[in-house]
Amino acid sequence: MQFLSQLPLASGTVLTVFMCQNQPGQCEEWDPWAGGNRAFLWPGEELAPVAPPDEGVTRLGEVSGVACVDVEAATYFDASTEWAKENQRPVREVLGQRGGEPEWVQGEETPDCPGCGEVMPFVAQWEEGRDHRTSANFGGGGSGYTFACEACARAVFLWQC
User: Fold this and answer.
1) DSSP letters along 72-129, please?
2) Taking 80 as the threshold, does the pLDDT of residue 110 lie above it?
3) Among residues 43, 100, 114, 150, which is most buried (max CB within 10 A)?
4) Rounded CA gap, 50 and 104, in Å?
5) Residue closest to 139 by CA, chosen among 33, 6, 18, 19
6) What is Dmax (Cα atoms) for the chain?
7) What is the pLDDT of residue 2?
């Protein structure tokens, strides 16, 4: 499983997302419940950063940190286009959104929580990334979507291309 992201939520909980990186077809990573993807909710107050090793090589490889910027717009497409225009940067540098409504690539797939049966609230949408060393593989131009039911302490991740 490849670590994709860590996102602190307003409640203090931390969402982490992982995705299978085996040969295509070995994992059903497009299915949120098949096990090829995993999303977890962690109580933020119980987490502590780990110090890097004094010597040797870590196995983490390339990592990428991003800044969250609030942009007022009606849709994700409008917000990403507005941000790119205001900052004179390419739209591909927008790596996703927190909250709002998902901008589905294929069609709406909002999951129900397996704990309570309610529709899971949308948390974030993820783009593949701008650097091949740190980007996710969502089928080339796809998007990933995370949902969480904090009452049941369950989260789920799926992607579309």
Assistant:
1) --SSHHHHHHHHHHHHT--GGG--EEESS----SSS--PPBPTTT-SBPPEEEEEE--
2) yes
3) 150
4) 36
5) 19
6) 49
7) 81
pLDDT value at residue 1:
81
Assign 33 to helix, strand or coil.
coil
3-state percent breakdown (helix, strand, coil) of the chain, nearest 5: 10, 30, 60
Task: Give the pTM.
Answer: 0.83
Q: What is the per-residue pLDDT across 74-91, written as a single tens digit (0 to 9) for each?
A: 888 999 899 899 999 888
Per-residue model confidence (pLDDT) at position 16: 93
**Euclidean distance between CA atoms 6 and 73, whole angstroms:** 25
- For residues 18 and 4, the answer to whether their CB atoms sit within 8 Å is yes
CA distances from 115 to 44, 82, 148, 151 (A): 21, 38, 11, 9
